[in-house]
Amino acid sequence: MNLRPYDHAATTCRESSSASVTGYAPRCAARSLTSCHAPPHAGRAVLLAAMIIATMTGGMWSGCAVDVPPLNPFTDLPVIDLDGSPHELTADLSPLGEYAIGEGFRVRIDGDAIRSVRILIADTETNEAGVIAGGGPVGTSFDYPVLEAGRYFAFIRFDESTNQADRTGTITAERSSASDVALLEPPAEGQVVQVIFEEGFLTEPGLWDPDDGTQEEREFLADISDLVRGEVLGRLKAIFADTPIQIIGEGDDPPDGPVSRLTFTPVRVLAEDQDVFDAALPPPDPDFPECQVRVIFGSVLPAGSREDIGNRDPEDEAVVNVGSFQGHGASCRTAVTNSINNIVFAIAQTGAHEIGHLVGLAHVGQIDIMNASATLAFFRDLEFARGQVQFDRFIDGEVVSDILTTVIQDPQIYFRAIFAPRLD
Ligand SMILES: [Zn+2]
Asked: Cα of 403 to ligand 1 centre, how many Å?
């Protein structure tokens, strides 16, 4: 794996020491408050709240060397002005207030350095986290009809390569009444995904190594192609059976409405230096350093796209690059090719992972289908489970992973939040 072991504390502090970020980093926000320099984003109310908490808990607020208890942005930040006018972003988390099912809001976030906008709902298991409940584009207003009652937040991520000073932006938001929401196009009940296998997906080159493979191996892979195709499709249908995502095969008639597509292609795709998304090293083997080649196992299209936050595009496409599982060279055979079972596992779970991205699921730190490298490293049944969101970025030639301990992905809640309940 190419992922550096993560460190919760380091992650939290690196982010929060920046001027424009507090949202998910309560401990470090508190730390920056104690450093004599109130961060520019910390409004008077927040500072006051910190001081009040400090007093209430026996802490001392007397200049620099104080031990101020952490801010909790999920409970301590005030709801922003919902007046439909732009306001400067003062934190990466903007509370939008409490909403009932059928109500909603319209939000627009602008800022050159802002990479993504997610909508979070207050976690019901802890008051120190938000659960991803959708999202929308940067620089365009979007409507969010509430399908799950709760307190809502807008959560932004900046492009990590930008300077702290450039990390600015505005938020424009207003509440929508039930009658406003009724005028919107109703949310889809689910997403149909058609699964396609390109000709020769296991052999051209697919799992066949064109330099060191034998003709017998290639014929074997050709012989099992139909079997693998059926097994992979069956596994994908089973994985998504209890979700609003409906998997159909090439021969199935697509139902009315938009269809996304997942294609298994035979190509082997090497990662460029800057690729961090779904690019990974095979599991390390110190005896064969020549095998540590970074490849891309799959991608939302166009290549390099990240997840479709909020499933805004119901006709998007993704690929699984079967050739990337090959283990190129005689000494670099991977466990993928050891058995039909492993082949099916590896490419089906990578397919499920990419379908997760097509509907907006992010990477999580846990061993899960949405783990960034799980499909190669773990040959066992994985699931879509609740987990802490992980962001990867490229710094000084290395992929660095940050786990956001206060941003939770819970596929059940996410699906309930973005898809309308089925009436049948
Ligand atoms: Zn991924």
From this structure: 14
Q: Under DSSP, is residue 112 helix (H, G, I), strand (E, B) or coil?
A: coil
With 0-12 CB in 10 A as exposed, 13-18 as middle and 19+ as buried, what is 124? exposed
**Model confidence, pTM:** 0.83
| Cβ–Cβ < 8 Å for 268, 320 | no
Is domain 191-383 given the CATH code 1.10.760 in the classification? no
Distance 307 CA to ligand 1 centre (A): 8
Q: Ligand 1 centroid to 108 CA: how many Å?
A: 27
If you measure from the C-alpha of residue 370 to the centroid of ligand 1, how many angstroms do you get, rounded to a whole number?
A: 6
CA distance 376 to 336: 8
Distance 249 CA to ligand 1 centre (A): 22
**Rounded distance, CA 292 to CA 310, Å?**
35
Q: What is the pLDDT of residues 233-269, one digit of tens each?
A: 999 999 999 999 999 999 999 888 999 999 999 999 9
User: Which SS3 state, helix, strand or coil, does residue 392 take?
Assistant: strand
Task: Report the alpha-carbon distance of residue 128 to residue 270 in Å, rounded.
Answer: 40
Query: Taking ligand 1, which is a single-atom ion, which protein residues have CB atoms under 5 Å away?
Result: 278
Structure tokens at 166: 């450039």
Q: What residues does each domain of the chain span?
A: 81-182, 191-383
Gap between the Cα atoms of 305 and 319, Å rounded: 11
CA–centroid distance, 278 to ligand 1, in Å, is 4
CB 15 within 8 Å of CB 410: no
Write the pLDDT tens digit of every residue in 128-182. 999 999 999 999 999 999 999 999 999 999 988 889 899 999 999 999 999 999 9
What's the 161 CA to ligand 1 centre distance in angstroms?
20
Angle, CA of 77, 115 and 183, to the nearest 5°: 75
Residues 6+ apart with CB under 8 A from 409: 131, 132, 361, 362, 364, 370, 386, 387, 388, 389
Q: Please check whether the domain covering 81-182 is classified as CATH 3.40.50.
A: no
In angstroms, what is the span from residue 68 Cα to ligand 1's centroid? Answer: 38
